[in-house]
Amino acid sequence: MQAPDMMLPHKDLVADWQTLMRVFIRPENEATKAILLKYMEQILFGLHDFLRKHVGVTQAISLEDLACRFTETIIRPTPEKKLEEVIADLIEEIAPWAVNVASPYFVGHMTSAIPFFMVHLKTIVAALNQNVVKLETSKVVSVVEKQVLGKLHRLIYHRQPDFYENHVQNTDTTLGAFVEDGTLANLTALWVARNRALAPKAGFDGVEAQGMQAAYRAYGIERAVVLISGMAHYSMYKSGGVLGIGNRNIIPIAVDENFRMRPEALAQAIRDLSAPEAKTKILAVVGIAGTTETGSVDPLATIADICADHGIHFHVDAAWGGPVLMSERYRHLLGGIDRADSVSIDGHKQFYMPMSCGMVYFRDPRIMDAIEYHASYINRPGSVDLGIKSLCGSREATSLILDSTFKIMGSRGLALLIEHGIDSARRFADMIARHPDFEVVSSPELNILTYRYCPRSLQRELAAADTRRRSKICARLNVLNRRLQRLQREAGKSFVSRTTLYRDRPAGDEMVVLRAVIMNPMTTLEVLAEILAEQEVIGRRLQADS
Amino acid sequence: MQAPDMMLPHKDLVADWQTLMRVFIRPENEATKAILLKYMEQILFGLHDFLRKHVGVTQAISLEDLACRFTETIIRPTPEKKLEEVIADLIEEIAPWAVNVASPYFVGHMTSAIPFFMVHLKTIVAALNQNVVKLETSKVVSVVEKQVLGKLHRLIYHRQPDFYENHVQNTDTTLGAFVEDGTLANLTALWVARNRALAPKAGFDGVEAQGMQAAYRAYGIERAVVLISGMAHYSMYKSGGVLGIGNRNIIPIAVDENFRMRPEALAQAIRDLSAPEAKTKILAVVGIAGTTETGSVDPLATIADICADHGIHFHVDAAWGGPVLMSERYRHLLGGIDRADSVSIDGHKQFYMPMSCGMVYFRDPRIMDAIEYHASYINRPGSVDLGIKSLCGSREATSLILDSTFKIMGSRGLALLIEHGIDSARRFADMIARHPDFEVVSSPELNILTYRYCPRSLQRELAAADTRRRSKICARLNVLNRRLQRLQREAGKSFVSRTTLYRDRPAGDEMVVLRAVIMNPMTTLEVLAEILAEQEVIGRRLQADS
Hints:
The structure is a homodimer. Chain A is of the alpha/beta class. Chain A has three domains: 17-100; 178-381, Aspartate Aminotransferase, domain 2, CATH 3.40.640; 411-545, Alpha-Beta Complex (Aspartate Aminotransferase, domain 1), CATH 3.90.1150. Chain A has 16 helices and eleven strands. Chain A has helices spanning 17-24, 30-53, 63-68, 83-94, 117-128, 140-157, 161-167, 182-197, 207-219, 234-242, 263-274, 300-310, 398-434, 456-464, 467-491, 525-545; strands at 176-179, 223-229, 250-253, 280-288, 313-317, 342-346, 358-362, 438-442, 448-453, 497-502, 510-517. In chain A, the strands form two sheets. Chain A has a seven-stranded mixed β-sheet, sandwiched between helices. In chain A, helix 13 (398-434) packs across helix 16. The longest helix of chain A has 37 residues, at 398-434.
């Protein structure tokens, strides 16, 4: 390709003003436009070619080898490459060593193929380059964002039409917020819950102003806690650390055989912590709609009852499971979510958006006042600036992508994807259950399941073993599954992740499991059967070697 | 345009499985590819046409009128629009009401035109859709990110080459982190500083585990504070609130006549707070390299001396000014930044990246251990997973954009942009100083300046006035400038922002000022002269009306 006139000169690359201006000024002539479009073609289809060629997860190269190639820490004064070379490098040198998350054989994490148009929508957002922290750098986009927040709020809470008429564009109230990801969504929810529980009162200006120490004194407590499922995402502990609560005060509640919070254990914990001598304030209870590791859904309605009885903030982490509300067939699985005080949902998970788009919703449109901040130059009281009630400042207009997705796919389109995932996970679980050398560990409530390789010989041994012997066999199974997962990943054809689960059992009885997340619509049952067959082969080989 | 075979049907849009699969499957035939490319052309050049047509900031429409159009809160079950219609809507219905931040006449905020190739780079990142939280969804991108962190670390700290050899790809250490924006960069820095100041010790497992109350007890303190410039960004107060310190314990230090922290005031504050009876721990001192409102740079070297004397964590908020380090001519303005324990820099500001890319760097590559988190399914100890030491979880591979920018522009290219901004701001300040009806309020240390309309008649009155009369005139000037700024914004041709400054003066002497941020290379002196001339006309009219 010839060097276009708007690009840096072909031979001796220099940084001069004229060259610089060319990359800022919009192209006026057809030739330059054609070049820019050509680059876009390379990106759209060059990357495709890569993605199509490598069905596996990544090419075989060790991390050490890769790391050796990226050790240059000096920024060169003069340009090193032309745009077309940089694009070519990204396609030819970087992409092949990236992870092909779009492969139907990539069923290990919550990242999958995304619809084609997402790339177009992201490009629009980049080209507009609005900053949603304030109206003066976003205008209509802030208004669109408030509308999208209204749509999701309605999906979750389905309050009366006049509620939405009052609040959708109300500049004083907020139905939710866009954040970077699920972690920041959960952090925002707990931040609000903390400030609400330790709110200003006579002689005390609130925890946000005076800090935790003063809050404890004002409320006569010595401890503040958050109660969560034992399967909660690590962002909950991190949030506890960040917020000054202490991650040790984020208390996991025991789960049942399918890794759902046990409501009676929650009720007991609340009773214990509510005793006057405990001097403890429960800031929030967190239920999960789709745990990261097993996709389990906590009994939200029952937890809502318990929280209502005790006046405790009820947060639901639906980062994964939230979009299930799109499906008429399966939304009942999230029954009770509309009684939560706050709900996290990730757009880059089951709304199939590109990285990354977290969101948090609040039933009470005034509750976010507890985290309101102003500045002299923006975010002044009474303005529409969305940054007034937001953890971060500058941010991208991802709401445009989500809004467009709803228009292009309809809730029914998204529902079909969700239903495919859940149905496939159930069928895959059946397939595993029927297999003599595997066992399902957590059956899929949504579209995640865990299982392990447990060859029939060891199954028989386990059945006959005493406790001590059982522990030994389990330890061996853990080693076996850890190796199996690694070997399959390294083979580069398929990717299933692994995690370690702990049931309500004697300590030490940890279980290493394989974890499948089925969200890619191209992941058919045949693909899943292939993945399992590959695991069986690896497992047998490992058994034979041991 | 005809409906392509991969898109939803033209007439009755339905959500069915076959249609869905078409938006996931990569196009194989040339016709479909051509359609996708056509859409990209619309985005690249349709938006251009808009951006070129509207030199002003936005078209004239009231916020209320806009808000009325976006009140639909129901997500329709069936698709509402085809992709091409959605793209057309975004270009024709949304973009005209967005803010044309790329206009040379938009000099009000820290958002400007970005080089053309940024849109291409963002598109690549979206198409690859890697999630940098963990190696298993990013592989080479995590390695690239570590390298970019090394490059910026070296720019700031210029430590010995073997330091970078040791750490650039070291899986145990971290030179910094990408975050969403400057607010989260500052929050991360203060989070680390807090945890370091209230670290584990005999009988205490650290503030992260046990919380603020336990930390205060363990350290025998009743208060923890952070000392900042009186001109610090509001994110500092927000961080204090989030971290459980209390935003009231984020203590502003007096600034000098050009809004730089007064070191003697800092030293005095430290002495006062260090008295045993104060029972106070100073968690950090924050200096600013480019305040948001005036672009002032605190005396970093002097502050570093003071912090070193007292063993206090020194954070520099260089979200705005950091890239000045690229310029050999002007990097001395940030002298002392290499002695900071942590530094924030924003990529979406003066590295001209699209929204949004914050970063935080730490001199000590082990200091981020203080905020380390693990999980069973990812981020296991010893892994390369970048999410181990990061505020957020899932996030976009923005490091690829920054790395590519360095390659395409060279540090010299970025330096030219920085130098243009600083030089233009100085010349604009001269132009204002020479104008009989305006006065410079803060002269530009970097490329931001503040000034106000102060007609010569009022200048004369001010000179002769007693204190009481002065206050009255100042109040009138404030009203005048507030109106002037609003009228200019509403006219839609240019945009200068406004803020309110408070000097070390008797209370109530607040000053409303116009604020110009000059970063767009297309903002010439002629453009600035036009903007000022327009303000003069508006100012005269307001004076005549009053």
